[in-house]
Amino acid sequence: MENQETISYAAMLKDIVNFMNPQEREDLISISLTHVLSLSGSIEGKKAILQHDEVLVAVFNLVNHKFNEIAKYAALTLINLTAEEEDALKVFEIAKSLNPAFPLIATAIKEVVDENSKTADPWTMVLSNLTRSEKLVEDIIVELEKDSTTVPKLLEAFTKLDYNKQNMKLHYLAAIFCNLTQTARGREIACEDKYNFLEKILPFASYEENIVRRGGTIGILKNICFDPVYHNIILNEKDDILHAILYPLCGPEEFTDEENDKLPLELQYLPETKTREEDPDLRKMLLESLLQLCATKRYREVLRSKGVYEILREYHKWEAKFGKDAECLLACENVVDILIKKEEEIGLDNYKEVQVPTDVAEKFVKEDNEYMENLL
Amino acid sequence: MADEKLDLQKTWTDEERLALAAKLDEELDAFIDSLEKKRYEEGWPEDRWQEEMDKHPFFMKKAPQPGDDVHPMFEGLQKLKYDPEENTAEELALNYKEDGNFYMKHKKFRTAIYSFSEGLKAKCDKPEVKSVLYNNRSAAHFFLKNYRSALIDAQKALEYNAEYAKSRWRAAQCAFYLDKFELCTQLCEELLKRDANNNEARELLKRNKTKKLEIERDQRKEAAEAKKRIVSFQRLTEALKTRGIKFDDLKNNKPITEELLRPKFLPLEDHPVHLDSDNETLVWPTAFSYPAFLFSDFQQQLSEDVVMEDCINDMFKEPLPCDKTNSYRPGNLNIYYENRKVGCVHKVDLNKTIKEILNEKGFFVTGGSLLFYVVPKNSEVEREFVNQQRRPLIYA
């Protein structure tokens, strides 16, 4: 049965491709492309399309079509086709293998940074899909760095909310940056002085209007905190990163004047209207970032002096009563457990250097799970 | 004519030359002697030569100030330099610019501003001239700390020359001093975009950010404190109302204000009535007056739970220095309060607490404070105090 279906797809796709030639009548292209687009939405359809390179090639050939509708459908089809990592790799390989090769990444970048592009948002999502695969990130970063103005332009496109004149929001740029910072080179770009990358993106960690933008930014923070190489750099950035991590965890609770004085400036005397990050996954990522910062003695001391314990004290009360997310509670306690210890008790500079045997690690995970069950 | 020429060309002997010279000398002397004898009056009189020298455009040390009488020669020179009929608009503008720069060098910023303004009035259309004049006037304003004017001029200069780095940098500094944080950030970023190594701009950007954060923090802090003050004042007025505290200077149905509660006795001024940290007990500023000595003792923070007798015993542990007869001793004293509304006095039951005393029908808080009178029992002072004529307060 399944076999039969695949065959019928094949026959249909073969017919359709003929109408997808850019020189065809626009209405014919439009109808056939719409069909391919809808096919790409189902698992089976996607599979069929990816088995027929000529369909993909036809889609590639339509991304620059003068009819915006057609160019947009082509890009939307590519979003669907690159949604799974495996498929994304395949699309990338096919594009590369063509003669001449189809510049998939370059096209995506060009559309994203083009202020007047009407397909910038779909392309941002295609690029976000492609960057999810670690195997591709390296190639993509090479492409990004070919022209020294590309990264600054992407940053500008991200930080200037009205960058695109066609009302494209470009929220998925956060996801792209987040994916990029999963690699060492990506983190290097984010922390290099010349782009001022961190300083520019940090405010979006508390961007209430859109969770993709906010979540992506928090993901970047977490990626960077995970790499102790950058702890010194982000430590020097005044309290910027600390503020970005802590602000979404702060609520309206009042602190004493002495406690307020410890906090980063932006967090002092927050108004009674202040609310916390509403998404538990994002709260957890923020807490995990803090835990990563706790790895080194130097940063632990900074965290203590900046009143992180006081903020988490109030946060924990809130999470237990209102947030009610066991994983967040545990993540919070993990940080607090380290911060309340004196350095003499901890007795080592870098937690990351501790070797944990696999069986012990497994035991810890099990204990954590049991513990969480009884938390709420 | 030809003859004369010939005559001139004749060769002269030395004697002939000398004779001619002597003759000419004679003629000149005769001419001078024949002139009318007149005094030389145009010279500078000896006593005022210095003044005259200062007025002379060649020698003057100071530029004449607007309104001064100017030397006619100076006027002439001025006309050459500043007359619109003698100069094109551009020449005029540039002349004023030169003047302004000269004054800038000598730190005469106000005069410089005047010169640059005159330059702008010359209506020279060239953008490079206008931008320089605006930029320089902006600099002069900046030195005088007129940041608002300096910013406006710097921005004008940028209008005529978008790449004027000096103006942009000054505008950024002005924006910083004027707490225009967004503008300062924008200008610094523009500077850095054009020169990534502009460390001054980078530094200002940081300072600007910190200043912004501090001011915002201060505003949040202030708002939080204001809120707290309002809440605690509400609690206080609630406590006063539930106790039915009466004020002799509060008209009917008027709300209790902070001004009403501000103690009018100087030593009590900083201690208005307030709730103790338990939020339950009122603490009162209190005056104890001695009619015999015309002075008062003050208790800045007297809890309403204190019993009057304990308070008195505590106060008179040590004798009063002015009490020669040693009559102001615990157990030998009567305490009164005055009801100014009806003009009479009430004796205090020493076993009562302050709260209970305040609850009595005739007790009124006066000038934000409690006022008691202390007299020795059965003394002349007491009799005099009690029988004193009191006129009731009359309210309109």
UniProtKB/TrEMBL annotation, chain A:
Q: Which SUPFAM superfamilies does the record cross-reference, listed alphabetically?
A: ARM repeat
Residue intervals of the Protein HGH1 N-terminal domain: 112-284
Task: Spell out the InterPro entries in the cross-references.
Answer: ARM-like, ARM-type_fold, Hgh1, Protein_HGH1_C, Protein_HGH1_N
Protein name per its UniProtKB record: Protein HGH1 homolog
Kindly give the Pfam families that the UniProt entry links to this protein. DUF383, DUF384
PANTHER family, per database record: PROTEIN HGH1 HOMOLOG (PTHR13387)
For this chain, the family text in UniProt reads: Belongs to the HGH1 family.
**Domain Protein HGH1 C-terminal residue range list:** 289-346
**TM spans, by residue?**
none
From TrEMBL, chain B:
Signal peptide as annotated in the record: none
Recorded hits in InterPro entries, A to Z, give: Csn1/TTC4_wheel, TPR-like_helical_dom_sf, TPR_rpt
Q: Which UniProt keywords apply?
A: Repeat, TPR repeat
Q: Where is the Cns1/TTC4 wheel domain?
A: 278-387
**Presence of keyword DNA repair:** no
Q: Which domain of life is it from?
A: Eukaryota
Q: Does the keyword Repeat apply?
A: yes
The UniProt similarity line reads: Belongs to the TTC4 family.
Q: Quote the protein name from its UniProt record.
A: DNA polymerase interacting tetratricopeptide repeat-containing, protein of 47 kDa
